[in-house]
From TrEMBL:
Signal peptide: none
Protein name: BolA family transcriptional regulator
InterPro entries xrefs: BolA, BolA-like_sf, BolA/IbaG_stress_morph_reg
Pfam families in the record: BolA
Source organism: Buchnera aphidicola
Membership in a protein family: Belongs to the BolA/IbaG family.
């Protein structure tokens, strides 16, 4: 699965400020930033990201995901300027 395609799908389906996708088919790391996560617990945040990608997961085009989410304020507060 092409990382740019994942970014495109998430951009189309979700109202996110920023999306970073790294990795390959074996393990994809997603960092998503947006106020869509305000007042939402970690489990629901994960579900928000999984939902638009579920078909690709079920078709095994994506094998493993690591998802980290932030509101814009959390991102700013945590000084997440470096993507690791």
């Amino acid at each position: 699965m092409d990382n740019k395609k994942i970014i495109s799908i998430l951009n189309q389906k979700l109202n996110l400020e920023q999306i970073y996708v790294t990795g390959d088919n074996n393990h994809i790391k997603i960092i998503a930033i947006g106020d869509i996560f305000k007042g939402v617990n970690q489990v629901k945040r994960q579900q928000i990201i999984y939902k638009p990608l579920i078909d690709m997961i079920l078709e095994k085009k994506i094998h493993a995901l690591s998802i980290t989410t932030y509101t814009k304020e959390e991102w700013k507060k945590n000084n997440k300027n470096n993507i690791s």
